[in-house]
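Now for a sample.
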Amino acid sequence: MALWLAGRDPRIPLLVKTLAVLVAGYALSPIDLIPDFIPVLGYLDEVLLLPLAIAGIVRLIDPALWAEHRLAAGALLERPASRVAAVLIVSVWICSTALLAWWLWPRSSAAP
């Protein structure tokens, strides 16, 4: 989250911002450079490449700015969650499960 915030800060040079946004986007993307189903190599980008890219970008950002963005990211993560949205999502899942169970439940057919 701090990397994403740093990528949107106008005080950071354009090249560093671009790299920060690309790395943050890649970290959150479901598409991998090396697919995860390949044994051992599949997790190489998550284990080695991504942390190295993040560490390199953090070194390019001024430490005072980086500390500011880390604090801002922590504040964003501590925001209260919407209970209404949580209830709505859980209700949709319960209704969907009940509808699926009703649809799949065997019915007795009465022959006249």
Summary: The chain is about 65% helix and 0% strand. The mean pLDDT is 85. Residues 2-88 form one domain. The chain has one domain: 2-88.
